[in-house]
Design brief:
The protein has one domain (about 10-325). It has eleven helices and eleven strands. It has helices spanning about 20-35, 40-55, 70-95, 100-120, 135-155, 160-170, 185-210, 215-245, 260-275, 280-295, 305-320, and strands spanning about 10-15, 15, 55-60, 60-65, 125, 130-135, 175, 180-185, 245-250, 250-255, 295-300. It has an eleven-stranded antiparallel sheet with strand order 1-11-10-9-8-7-6-5-4-3-2. A hairpin with a 2-residue loop joins strand 5 and strand 6. The protein is globular, with a radius of gyration of 23 Å. Residues about 315-330 have low confidence and may be disordered.
């Protein structure tokens, strides 16, 4: 009897090849045309921006694609603007109606979230196969209304549950071709991250207050900003790591290796660059962050990734694709 030895997993690193100089040209044109057209060009600006970042994100010698068309985005934004402008106008004449509009917007929020995620996933592709999102209103309502409302009522104790439910909504309802993503993180994983973050912030405030109270009050502000950035870098890096490291699709596993000190350095130098250049450093800041995240993200592929993708092509072709125009809208909110 011949036992086949399974092939060792492939560690495929993501790579971002864009540059700040290239993106600056896109960014400055987008900014100027958006201003000159009173915001109308923003839909085309978004498509140009997304296509640049997608096309410069590499995995296994292939790039991602952003398939959305500007008119679909413009249509969604026009609808959103009309609804918001109309409700604001009515509320200005009938102030008593304002609470009703607020409740209506709250009720629409889960629909907006689901609609936006469907649009983004269906217009994101890798090797000519699109992603998809199958979440529903009920799941989104719990993740974006119930848990956020409970968080202040419980003095923040349910915040980790909120983060868990929101990320589970995104990951567990996403699929690549016909293969669904799986999310194995538990609320305990998020409680650990949030607990350390809150403790670090409390200690930082206490330490800075004790040290700075004998100096100028401005010293408190100067000291707390980098410490706040450091705590935020910890929070973001560990939340992203938690989500990615508990995400699988098919036989494959994602892995994120973001580090607090690396992300903190990116945040700090980006903030200084943007402040010192009156915002002109923003394109370089965005590229630096994208490059850092890509460099620290890995796909652990079991077997040949090309064979897996080829199988997805066959399954998608046999099932067919029904892309209703009713969902071909990005609300841009």
């Amino acid at each position: 009897m011949n036992d086949q030895i399974p092939n060792p997993p492939q560690f495929l690193r993501f790579q971002f090849t864009g540059t700040g100089g290239e993106y600056f040209k896109i960014w400055i044109v987008n900014l100027l045309l958006t201003i000159l057209t009173l915001g109308i060009y923003s839909a085309w600006a978004k498509v140009r921006r997304e296509r640049y970042f997608y096309s410069n994100t590499h995995l296994a010698e292939h790039t991602f694609e952003y398939l959305a068309e500007p008119m679909a985005i413009l249509k969604g934004r026009a609808i959103a603007f009309a609804v918001l402008a109309g409700s604001s106008a009515v509320a200005s004449f009938f102030p008593l109606a304002e609470p009703a509009f607020s409740l209506a917007f709250l009720a629409l929020l889960p629909w907006i979230v689901v609609k936006g995620l469907k649009f983004r996933m269906r217009n994101s592709a890798f090797k000519n196969i699109s992603f998809n999102f199958n979440g529903n209103y009920g799941e989104a309502a719990k993740a974006y209304i119930l848990w956020p409302l409970l968080t202040p009522l419980t003095l923040g104790l349910t915040a980790p549950l909120m983060f868990h439910r929101q990320n589970r909504l995104l990951v567990a309802n996403t699929q690549y071709g016909t293969t669904p993503f799986e999310f194995s993180a538990t609320p305990k994983d998020f409680y650990k991250v949030v607990g350390i973050y809150v403790l670090a912030m409390a200690l930082a405030f206490a330490l800075v207050f004790l040290v700075a109270r004998d100096f100028l009050p401005q010293a408190f502000v100067v000291a707390i900003i980098p410490l706040g950035l450091l705590a935020y870098a910890y929070f973001r890096s560990h939340i992203i790591n938690t989500v990615f490291n508990h995400t699988e699709f098919g036989p494959h596993q994602l892995e994120s290796r973001l580090q607090t000190k690396g992300l903190f350095w990116i945040y700090l130098t980006n903030a200084l660059g943007i402040a010192l250049t009156a915002g002109l450093f923003a394109p370089w800041a965005k590229v630096r962050l994208a490059k850092y995240k890509a460099d620290h993200t890995v796909l652990i592929a079991q077997g040949n990734l090309d064979d897996f993708v080829a199988g997805q092509h066959q399954e998608v072709s046999s099932v067919g694709s029904e892309m209703s125009e009713a969902f071909d809208v990005d609300l841009g909110l």
